[in-house]
Structures are given as structure tokens and as C-alpha cells.
Amino acid sequence: PNEEIRKFNHLLEQDFVSPANFCPHFYLKTPINVVLCYLKSTHNFYKVKYLNEITSLIEQLTFKEEIKPNWKPLLLKTFNDYSSELVQHIDQEEADLFPYIESLMAAQESKKLDFTYRNKLKLINHLLNHNDNAEEKLEILIDFLEKRKTDFDNPMRLNMLLTKLNIFKDDLLIHAKIEDQVLLPKALELEQEILNNPDLIS
């Protein structure tokens, strides 16, 4: 398991350097439990650390004297709304999708069909509906801040925020690709394997 994690982390490092070159084929041999563990840990990282850090950086922004009224309250509200939407999406996955996949994994391990869902629609619907364009919304925010740079009287604070937002955007992009192009196909394959097993279905 440790070797599989090491290989997976190495692939992630390469993809973070160049997100546009992401290729799901490279993750074919990664065990589904390693992929799921990564996604769950990043969910926690977003909720506990990253979103709060970005909010704090927004709160520290200061505007030039002539910018009256300044639009920091609007910026905070926009990002807070975005954060709430992202956390809601994360919570839905952790309440429904991830437990279902864990049930598939447990059924494969125990050779018993002891999970209650057995419903491919959960995975297919997630594939069809997983278009929350979280990265696009961040891109819009980043572009807006770039265009309004002259409103701020402390470029260093703004640059810190922009750097953090760009890193977060790339992280979300890789996260979404891992989820949609690696985890879900693996889960669908595992589900089909289980449902085609007469010893489990009987």
C-alpha cells in the first residue's frame, strides 16, 4: 500500500506542475481505496484550512482612500457564497457517493453483498450532474481582481490572495479530474464486477 501511495503522489506532483496535461490512463493501476483516501483528505483540507485562509486574506485587503465605498464586503460575500456552495457539494459526496463506493469495496473484500444501495444510478447521476464549475467561478473572481488591482493600496496583500486563489483553482481542477476520470470509472467497473458475480447476487 505504501508503494501505491508513493506512486500516486508522484503522479499528482507531475499533474500539479502541468494540470492541462492530466491523463487518467496513468492512474489505471492506482487502487480505488488510495484514490478515495486522497479525495476525502483534500475535502477536509479545503473545509478546515484552505477556504478559511482565503477568507482571511480577503479580510486583510485594504483599499485606496479614493475608493469609496470600497467593495470588500461584496468580495467577502461573493467568496463566502462560493465557499458555502463548495462545502455543500463536498458534504453531499461524503454523505452519499463515497459511502456507496466504500460499500462496493467492502462487498468485494468480504465477498458478501451486504450493502443497501446496489444502485448504479448513484454513480451515473453523479457523472451527469457533476458540473459545478468551481474552477470557472474562481477564474472569474481572479480575473476581476486582476482588472481592479489599482483599487488596492497594498499590492503585496493582493498578490498573496491571487497566488492562493490560483493554487486553489489548480488544486480543484486536479481534484475534479481525479474524481470524474479516475474514481468514478473505477467504481463503475467495481460495481459491474460485483453485480455480475452470481455468488454475490444470489
Name the features:
single chain, 202 residues, mainly alpha, elongated
For the largest beta-sheet, the strand count, sense and barrel status come to: none
Distance between the termini: 32 Å
Mean pLDDT rating: 86
Portion of residues in beta strands equals under 5%
Share of residues in helices: over 70%
Category from helices, strands and their pairing: mainly alpha
> Secondary-structure element sequence?
HHHHHHH
Treating each run of at least 4 consecutive H or I residues as one helix, how many helices?
7
From the alpha carbons, calculate the radius of gyration and give it in angstroms: 20 Å
- By oligomeric state, this entry counts as single chain
What would the principal axes of the Cα set say about the shape?
A: elongated
Q: Which residues form runs of ≥5 with pLDDT under 50? A: none
Tell me the total number of β-strands. 0
List the helices and strands and how they pair.
Blueprint: H1 2-17, H2 32-59, H3 72-110, H4 120-129, H5 134-147, H6 155-195, H7 198-201
Helix pairs in contact: 2-3, 2-6, 3-6, 4-6, 5-6
What does this structure look like?
- The mean pLDDT is 86.
- The protein is an all-alpha fold and 202 residues long.
- Helix 2 runs antiparallel to helix 3, helix 2 runs antiparallel to helix 6 and helix 4 packs antiparallel against helix 6.
- The longest helix has 41 residues.
- It has 7 helices and no strands.
- Helix content is 75%, strand content 0%.
